Amino acid sequence: GAGVSQSPSNKVTEKGKDVELRCDPISGHTALYWYRQRLGQGLEFLIYFQGNSAPDKSGLPSDRFSAERTGESVSTLTIQRTQQEDSAVYLCASSSTSGTEQFFGPGTRLTVL
Amino acid sequence: GENVEQHPSTLSVQEGDSAVIKCTYSDSASNYFPWYKQELGKRPQLIIDIRSNVGEKKDQRIAVTLNKTAKHFSLHITETQPEDSAVYFCAAMGGSNYKLTFGKGTLLTVNP
Q1: Which residues of chain B are within 8 Å of residue A24 when distances are taken between CB atoms?
Q2: How far is A13 from chain B (nearest CA, A)?
Q3: Tens-digit pLDDT profile for residues A70-83
Q4: Under a CB-based contact definition with an 8 Å cutoff, are residues A37 and A43 in contact?
Q5: What is the pLDDT of residue A2?
Q6: Which of B43, B104, B106 should we substitute to test contact with A (largest number of A Cβ atoms within 10 Å)?
Q7: In this predicted structure, what is the pLDDT of residue A1?
Q8: What single-letter DSSP state applies at residue A82?
Q9: Contact of A54 with A66, CB cutoff 8 Å
Q10: Considering only Cβ atoms within 10 Å of each terminal Cβ, which end of chain A, N or C, has fewer?
Protein backbone atom coordinates (compact mmCIF):
# COMPACT_ATOMS: atom_id res chain seq x y z
CA GLY A 1 0.00 0.00 0.00
CA ALA A 2 0.95 3.65 -0.19
CA GLY A 3 3.34 4.97 2.39
CA VAL A 4 3.48 8.41 3.98
CA SER A 5 3.75 11.13 1.37
CA GLN A 6 4.77 14.77 1.73
CA SER A 7 4.64 17.78 -0.52
CA PRO A 8 6.42 19.71 -1.77
CA SER A 9 9.65 17.70 -1.79
CA ASN A 10 11.65 20.93 -1.95
CA LYS A 11 10.70 24.48 -1.07
CA VAL A 12 12.86 27.56 -1.48
CA THR A 13 11.48 30.74 0.02
CA GLU A 14 12.58 34.19 0.98
CA LYS A 15 13.01 35.27 4.56
CA GLY A 16 9.77 36.64 5.95
CA LYS A 17 7.44 34.61 3.73
CA ASP A 18 4.99 32.02 5.01
CA VAL A 19 5.21 28.38 3.94
CA GLU A 20 2.84 25.46 4.20
CA LEU A 21 4.03 21.86 4.22
CA ARG A 22 1.69 18.94 3.65
CA CYS A 23 1.66 15.39 4.95
CA ASP A 24 -0.54 12.49 3.84
CA PRO A 25 -0.27 9.68 6.39
CA ILE A 26 -0.86 6.00 5.77
CA SER A 27 -4.59 5.39 5.51
CA GLY A 28 -6.08 4.37 8.85
CA HIS A 29 -3.19 5.64 10.94
CA THR A 30 -4.58 7.68 13.80
CA ALA A 31 -1.27 9.04 15.09
CA LEU A 32 0.76 11.60 13.14
CA TYR A 33 4.02 13.31 14.01
CA TRP A 34 6.16 16.14 12.64
CA TYR A 35 9.93 16.21 13.10
CA ARG A 36 12.65 18.61 11.98
CA GLN A 37 16.06 17.42 10.82
CA ARG A 38 18.80 20.00 10.54
CA LEU A 39 21.79 19.16 8.37
CA GLY A 40 23.87 16.41 9.96
CA GLN A 41 21.63 16.23 13.01
CA GLY A 42 19.11 13.84 14.49
CA LEU A 43 15.38 14.23 14.28
CA GLU A 44 13.79 16.82 16.55
CA PHE A 45 10.18 16.25 17.65
CA LEU A 46 7.81 19.10 16.81
CA ILE A 47 4.21 17.98 17.35
CA TYR A 48 2.01 14.91 17.77
CA PHE A 49 -1.58 14.40 16.62
CA GLN A 50 -3.93 11.72 17.85
CA GLY A 51 -6.83 11.90 15.45
CA ASN A 52 -7.50 15.57 14.84
CA SER A 53 -6.28 16.82 18.19
CA ALA A 54 -2.73 17.77 19.13
CA PRO A 55 -2.13 16.82 22.76
CA ASP A 56 1.56 17.71 22.53
CA LYS A 57 2.81 20.81 20.75
CA SER A 58 5.80 21.16 23.04
CA GLY A 59 8.38 20.78 20.28
CA LEU A 60 7.21 23.70 18.17
CA PRO A 61 10.17 26.12 18.23
CA SER A 62 8.17 29.34 18.33
CA ASP A 63 4.70 30.76 17.79
CA ARG A 64 5.56 31.16 14.10
CA PHE A 65 5.04 27.40 13.80
CA SER A 66 1.57 25.86 13.76
CA ALA A 67 0.03 22.65 12.52
CA GLU A 68 -3.39 21.23 11.95
CA ARG A 69 -4.90 17.95 10.93
CA THR A 70 -8.29 17.39 9.38
CA GLY A 71 -10.39 14.26 9.12
CA GLU A 72 -7.76 12.03 10.73
CA SER A 73 -5.90 12.36 7.47
CA VAL A 74 -3.92 15.18 5.93
CA SER A 75 -1.83 17.45 8.13
CA THR A 76 -0.28 20.78 7.31
CA LEU A 77 2.64 22.44 9.06
CA THR A 78 2.71 26.19 8.62
CA ILE A 79 5.71 28.38 9.28
CA GLN A 80 5.00 32.10 9.28
CA ARG A 81 7.58 34.82 8.65
CA THR A 82 10.28 32.27 7.86
CA GLN A 83 13.80 32.81 9.13
CA GLN A 84 17.07 31.36 7.84
CA GLU A 85 17.34 29.11 10.89
CA ASP A 86 14.13 27.41 9.79
CA SER A 87 16.05 25.82 6.91
CA ALA A 88 15.90 22.05 7.45
CA VAL A 89 14.19 18.90 6.30
CA TYR A 90 10.72 18.57 7.79
CA LEU A 91 9.68 14.96 8.20
CA CYS A 92 6.22 13.62 8.87
CA ALA A 93 5.53 10.17 10.32
CA SER A 94 2.41 8.20 11.09
CA SER A 95 1.62 5.13 13.16
CA SER A 96 -1.48 2.98 13.51
CA THR A 97 -1.81 4.24 17.05
CA SER A 98 0.53 5.86 19.54
CA GLY A 99 3.34 3.66 20.82
CA THR A 100 3.70 1.62 17.64
CA GLU A 101 6.16 1.78 14.74
CA GLN A 102 6.38 5.19 13.13
CA PHE A 103 6.59 5.25 9.34
CA PHE A 104 8.29 8.27 7.87
CA GLY A 105 7.58 10.27 4.76
CA PRO A 106 10.34 11.43 2.38
CA GLY A 107 10.44 14.89 3.93
CA THR A 108 10.26 18.44 2.64
CA ARG A 109 13.58 20.22 2.29
CA LEU A 110 12.98 23.86 3.20
CA THR A 111 15.55 26.48 2.27
CA VAL A 112 15.06 30.03 3.49
CA LEU A 113 17.18 32.56 1.63
CA GLY B 1 12.74 15.32 29.35
CA GLU B 2 14.40 12.40 27.64
CA ASN B 3 17.99 12.73 26.43
CA VAL B 4 19.59 10.21 24.06
CA GLU B 5 23.33 10.08 23.44
CA GLN B 6 24.72 8.08 20.52
CA HIS B 7 28.29 6.96 19.82
CA PRO B 8 30.31 6.93 17.70
CA SER B 9 29.31 9.72 15.32
CA THR B 10 31.21 8.05 12.49
CA LEU B 11 32.27 4.45 12.02
CA SER B 12 34.27 2.94 9.20
CA VAL B 13 34.64 -0.84 8.84
CA GLN B 14 35.84 -3.31 6.26
CA GLU B 15 33.28 -5.42 4.46
CA GLY B 16 32.60 -8.55 6.48
CA ASP B 17 33.51 -6.98 9.82
CA SER B 18 31.03 -6.26 12.59
CA ALA B 19 29.77 -2.81 13.55
CA VAL B 20 28.47 -1.74 16.94
CA ILE B 21 26.66 1.51 17.72
CA LYS B 22 25.79 2.43 21.30
CA CYS B 23 23.14 4.68 22.81
CA THR B 24 22.29 5.79 26.32
CA TYR B 25 19.04 7.33 27.51
CA SER B 26 18.04 9.27 30.59
CA ASP B 27 14.34 8.56 31.22
CA SER B 28 13.95 5.35 33.21
CA ALA B 29 10.30 5.20 32.07
CA SER B 30 11.36 4.72 28.43
CA ASN B 31 10.01 1.44 27.10
CA TYR B 32 10.47 1.38 23.31
CA PHE B 33 13.78 1.65 21.46
CA PRO B 34 13.76 1.67 17.64
CA TRP B 35 16.72 1.93 15.28
CA TYR B 36 16.36 3.71 11.96
CA LYS B 37 18.57 3.59 8.87
CA GLN B 38 18.69 6.66 6.66
CA GLU B 39 20.41 6.57 3.30
CA LEU B 40 21.50 9.86 1.77
CA GLY B 41 18.49 11.91 0.74
CA LYS B 42 16.04 9.20 1.76
CA ARG B 43 13.50 8.79 4.54
CA PRO B 44 14.44 7.05 7.82
CA GLN B 45 13.41 3.40 7.78
CA LEU B 46 12.96 1.19 10.81
CA ILE B 47 15.41 -1.71 10.82
CA ILE B 48 14.82 -3.19 14.26
CA ASP B 49 13.21 -2.26 17.55
CA ILE B 50 13.09 -3.58 21.08
CA ARG B 51 10.73 -3.13 23.99
CA SER B 52 11.77 -2.99 27.59
CA ASN B 53 10.47 -6.43 28.47
CA VAL B 54 13.21 -8.15 26.42
CA GLY B 55 16.99 -7.89 26.57
CA GLU B 56 17.96 -8.86 23.03
CA LYS B 57 16.36 -9.18 19.64
CA LYS B 58 17.83 -10.52 16.39
CA ASP B 59 16.88 -10.25 12.76
CA GLN B 60 19.35 -11.95 10.44
CA ARG B 61 22.56 -9.88 10.54
CA ILE B 62 21.13 -7.25 12.86
CA ALA B 63 20.70 -7.46 16.62
CA VAL B 64 19.80 -5.02 19.36
CA THR B 65 20.59 -5.40 23.04
CA LEU B 66 19.03 -3.48 25.91
CA ASN B 67 20.32 -2.99 29.43
CA LYS B 68 17.57 -1.24 31.39
CA THR B 69 19.60 -1.03 34.58
CA ALA B 70 22.39 0.86 32.86
CA LYS B 71 19.97 2.64 30.52
CA HIS B 72 21.81 1.78 27.35
CA PHE B 73 21.08 -0.13 24.17
CA SER B 74 23.22 -1.13 21.23
CA LEU B 75 22.91 -2.06 17.58
CA HIS B 76 25.08 -4.87 16.25
CA ILE B 77 25.52 -5.51 12.54
CA THR B 78 27.49 -8.62 11.57
CA GLU B 79 29.05 -9.48 8.21
CA THR B 80 28.70 -5.90 7.04
CA GLN B 81 28.14 -5.19 3.36
CA PRO B 82 28.64 -1.98 1.35
CA GLU B 83 24.87 -1.51 1.18
CA ASP B 84 24.84 -1.20 4.98
CA SER B 85 26.53 2.19 4.53
CA ALA B 86 24.11 4.84 5.82
CA VAL B 87 23.34 6.99 8.86
CA TYR B 88 21.85 5.01 11.74
CA PHE B 89 19.71 6.66 14.41
CA CYS B 90 18.71 5.25 17.75
CA ALA B 91 15.65 6.56 19.54
CA ALA B 92 13.84 6.14 22.81
CA MET B 93 10.16 6.50 23.63
CA GLY B 94 9.45 7.60 27.17
CA GLY B 95 6.40 7.32 29.32
CA SER B 96 4.43 9.53 26.92
CA ASN B 97 4.01 6.49 24.65
CA TYR B 98 4.30 8.58 21.51
CA LYS B 99 7.29 10.91 21.57
CA LEU B 100 10.53 9.57 20.11
CA THR B 101 13.76 11.25 21.16
CA PHE B 102 16.53 10.58 18.67
CA GLY B 103 20.28 10.34 18.97
CA LYS B 104 22.39 12.48 16.65
CA GLY B 105 23.15 9.58 14.34
CA THR B 106 26.13 7.44 13.31
CA LEU B 107 27.52 7.57 9.78
CA LEU B 108 28.52 3.99 8.98
CA THR B 109 30.81 3.42 6.03
CA VAL B 110 31.51 -0.14 4.90
CA ASN B 111 34.57 -0.29 2.69
CA PRO B 112 34.64 -3.02 0.02
Answers
A1: none
A2: 20
A3: 877 999 999 999 99
A4: yes
A5: 81
A6: B43
A7: 57
A8: -
A9: no
A10: N
